[in-house]
Design brief:
single chain; alpha/beta; DNA polymerase, domain 1; 2 domains; nine-stranded mixed beta sheet; two-stranded parallel ribbon; about 35% helix; globular; binds S-adenosyl-L-homocysteine; binds iron/sulfur cluster
Length: about 375
């Protein structure tokens, strides 16, 4: 196929994926009392919302700063804004958070939050502290459920209820900052603990691209939360047409859930492979912008005993990613009740890792954290629905 035809095809596919995402739209940002949530609006949309009150541009900047830099939830705490204007804002708007329905701490110190959303849907977020340093990662969900049915994934057993809004995605992060007291203090100390984001919770982020993109743009905004794109990793099961767009528009780190190196096996484990087979997926990785040594693509590989963990698999993996700046995260399968797999043996994992490392790639073994509370990334579930 010519390059032009290939690009046109991807554009068509993108339009189709975005149209489908719209069928699973989140509920509106309006509360029962008619007030509107300001969280999740882009700067332009915030400005448009505030024009209802005839506010000049500098006020928009102030409100943004209070919401996203200081983390205030109450207009009355916006001390650079006069009381009458605070009151007018509060009459029309709110600065909401998803409600924490439950917190569950694992014995490895990761902590799972179950959020109840305005329409009573629930979603999970995990804080995963770095075992050595005084910081950690927040694992965000992007959808309630998932349309894809990867065989080893607990989320894959749930049907997709709906996409999360940008507000609900940013809101997970903001609610964790609330919970850990991680907003800048008046003394000017900056937050430390919640220092990276991984989009590895429930759902396929590239099937909810527009809301995920809006949320990440807010989180990266320099006058707000200001997390650098280098501290954000988006994990995809391989939605090829959207990978190009995410790379061009967001430029965040990319993680690809590979899990198998032959199409016949990947078709079974990650059924999306039937649409976007391995060769196309790897080609999309090679096109991904900024893939330099400093910003390697991460390949996630769930180690399933006797299924995808042979030495031949490892050698084929190395051949597939040859020349790509990459690292391979080996994740021993984290079993859940009713799952059909077992984790690979330590010997198999070691042999596999050695072959990958001998080829010059980092191949850390990532034992899922929060196993005891089913909080491991990619296997979150809404207990409320179980
Ligand atoms: N939908 C996206 C992001 C969420 S899944 C994706 O598939 O990439 C995040 C990661 O956890 C994926 O690599 C997924 O394959 C992995 N995962 C899912 N279930 C798992 C399990 N039971 N044990 C280990 N890893 C799992
Ligand atoms: Fe969905 Fe990712 Fe789970 Fe596959 S691994 S079912 S894409 S959440």
């Amino acid at each position: 196929m010519s390059v032009g035809a290939d690009l046109a095809l991807r554009e068509d596919e993108r339009a189709r994926i975005l149209a489908k995402a719209a069928l699973f739209s989140p509920p509106s940002a309006e509360l029962a009392d008619g007030r509107r949530d300001l969280i999740g609006l882009s700067r332009e949309d915030l400005a448009a919302a505030l024009t209802e009150l005839d506010l000049p541009a500098f006020r928009v900047k102030q409100v943004w700063h209070w919401i996203y830099h200081q983390g205030v939830r109450d207009f009355s705490r916006m001390s650079s804004i006069a009381r009458p204007l605070q009151e007018r804002l509060a009459e029309r708007f709110v600065i909401a958070r998803p409600e924490v329905a439950r917190r569950h701490k694992s014995n490895d110190d990761s902590e799972k939050f179950l959020f109840r959303l305005r329409d009573a849907a629930s979603v999970e977020t995990v804080y995963i502290p770095d075992p050595v340093e005084d910081r950690g990662a927040v694992c965000l969900s992007s959808q309630v459920g998932c349309t894809l049915s990867c065989r080893f994934c607990h989320t894959g057993t749930q049907r997709l209820e709906r996409n999360l809004s940008a507000a609900e995605i940013v809101g997970q992060f903001m609610a964790l900052r609330d919970a850990y007291g991680e907003w800048p203090s008046p003394k000017g100390e900056t937050p430390r603990l919640l220092s990276t984001i991984v989009l590895m919770g429930m759902g396929e982020p590239l099937y909810n691209y527009e809301n995920v993109a809006r949320a990440m743009t807010i989180i990266m905004d320099n006058e707000g939360i200001a997390l650098s794109r280098r501290r954000i990793t988006l994990s995809t099961s391989g939605v090829v047409p959207m990978m190009d767009r995410a790379g061009a528009e967001l430029g965040v780190n990319l993680a690809v859930s590979l899990h198998a190196v032959r199409d016949d096996l990947r078709d079974e484990l990650v059924p999306l492979n039937r649409k976007y087979p391995i060769a196309e997926l790897i080609a999309a990785c090679r096109r991904y912008p900024g893939a330099s040594n400093a910003r390697r693509i991460t390949f996630e590989y769930v180690m399933l005993r006797g299924v995808n963990d042979s030495e031949a698999d490892a050698r084929e993996l190395v051949r597939l990613i040859a020349g790509l700046p990459a690292k391979v995260n080996l994740i021993p399968f984290n079993p859940w009740p009713g799952s059909a797999f077992a984790p690979s043996t330590p010997v198999a994992i070691r042999r596999f890792a050695e072959i990958v490392m001998d080829a010059g790639y980092a191949a850390p073994v990532r034992t899922p954290r929060g196993r005891d509370i089913l909080a491991a990334c990619g296997q979150l579930r809404t207990e409320a629905a179980d």
